[in-house]
Give the backbone structure.
Amino acid sequence: MENQSLKHLASNLLVALPLSLAALSASAEQATGLSQNPEVQAFIAGMHEQHGFDIAHLTRQFAVLRPNATVLKAIRPPAVPEKQRSWERYRERFVNEQRLAGGLSFWQKHAATLQRAEAIHGVPAEVIVAIIGVETIYGQHMGSFGVLEALASLAFFYPPRSEFFRGELEQFLLLARENGISPLSVKGSYAGAIGIPQFMPSSHRRFAVDFDGDDRIDLRQSHADAIGSVGRFLQQHGWQTGEPVAVPAAVSGNPAALLALGIKPSLSVSEFAAQGVAAVADGDRAAALIDLVTPAAATEYWLGFNNFYVITRYNRSSFYAMAVFQLAEALRQEHAARAAGNHSPPATRASNSSP
Ligand SMILES: [Ca+2]
């Protein structure tokens, strides 16, 4: 009897204990930072065991962090479903005069570096310029969130993607240690993307290169390192030099089943043709059907090839890859036109400048 009531008391305590601990840690986070959170403590212990980080040192760094409400709001999927997003609005945001003009001067300023990246990594200058333009307007907007706090917020307070962001948090701490920088000093996007090309920490460690020869990789300050790293990222993800990116397509009938195949090329252009998708391209080339939807307008269809898919490895969205491709095309044409203009005979320039 006594035993039983003791057991009962014990089980009540066991139920009550986690609740009070949770309440305690929630208020403790506000008062003393994330280092009080049991999951953070377990993460820190793991960083010690796996990578030899000092527990007291990491605990002090997490102690100054709080769950960032802006980050946690920004990560949530948009209220508007994917299919109601507007390609037209998206394109206006990224393929515009500002990014074209900025890209042309970026290209001019870094012409030799871009040429070197093209020679080494096989990726055209205009594609590298376009990615940096879409990501940060050529380094102007690299994000103002503390990367450690952003990643910790997502790792421990956003359950749907906690595994992914715990991985990125681990990679970020390793990256900071390798580069001898304080993790608290790095700013980036709400999702923890860093620098001129907005690399996530795992991509930074795997794909970034020193491209200006100062023996360190600095994607925040060095445009050359950013250029070389974007080239290497695309190369490592399978960029095929000289191959096309995408072509417009005309669709007859309902393309739902073809769209359901996804954005990784899985049918040949001829196979698409047999199923009502017409495009001007090599019949043997593998492609994926891409739909660009704008509400209250006709959907735009394209066939995206391997290189289109490779761009989606940078950001897994057809809108993103198409914006990069179209900005790159506009940059390439304008760059060529200017180069042709510069090569016009001196007599023309003289006559232009004469009164
Ligand atoms: Ca460097």
Remarks:
- Residues 257 and 289 are 10 Å apart (CA to CA).
- The pocket of calcium ion is lined by residues 210, 212, 214, 216-218, 222, 225 (CB under 6 Å).
